[in-house]
Specification:
about 30% helix, single chain, alpha/beta, 12 strands
């Protein structure tokens, strides 16, 4: 049996780091820039970067509607930082013309932890990940203002929600791909494998 194929949306942001982390977690990792590449992926990572830019490029490259359809259809998806914003059903403070993929019943606040020069690192306990806290890198990071009934809060920092899971969707405010700790990516790869097994005849 071939291993699970995880794409990384490669329009803008820290794509290479996610590809490395996914490969270390046992997935076949591929960049995704076109709808046909998305169609070949068992799961997808929406990386950090600039959420407004990524959303506009996704529309320009004809990816936004296929993305929404795949997420609605249950494709495993993981968003970090800007990717978390893209997965939110609602942004508290959207920029003009900013769209989201949606899929997680949460409201997020952009750049909630401050500007670039206020970036920081912290140990984060993530429910469902063994071996102690995850090392989180927060760069102009959002936080989750609130979640709906369908979403599960799996991590908080300083009283704010920084990781959420809903069905086959996972989202973190922080960047585990920058740390060399691949446990969050491992959790996502396991989610994608489980989804593939559940969908097998």
């Amino acid at each position: 049996m071939s291993d699970v194929v995880i794409g990384v949306l490669a329009l803008q942001g820290d794509v290479r780091e996610h590809l490395v982390a996914l490969a270390a977690a046992g997935a076949v990792a591929r960049p995704v820039r076109r709808p046909e590449e998305l169609a070949e992926a068992d799961g997808l990572v929406l990386p950090g970067g600039e959420s407004t830019t990524i959303s506009k490029l996704a529309v320009l490259f004809g990816l936004m509607e296929p993305l929404r359809a795949r997420v609605r259809g249950g494709m495993p998806v993981y968003g970090t930082c800007a990717g978390m914003i893209l997965l939110a059903d609602k942004i508290l403070d959207p920029r003009s013309g900013q769209e989201t993929v949606g899929g997680v019943d949460m409201i997020v606040r952009r750049n909630a932890f401050g500007r670039q020069n206020e970036s920081f690192e912290a140990a984060v306990d993530v429910r469902g990940i063994a071996g102690g806290p995850v090392h989180g890198v927060f760069i102009r990071a959002p936080w989750v203002e609130s979640v709906g009934a369908g979403a599960e809060v799996i991590a908080e920092h300083d009283g704010h929600i920084v990781a959420v899971r809903q069905g086959n969707a996972l989202a973190t405010s922080f960047h585990p791909e920058l740390t060399g700790d691949h446990r969050v990516h491992g959790l996502f790869v396991d989610m994608a494998r489980g989804h593939g097994a559940a969908g097998s005849p």
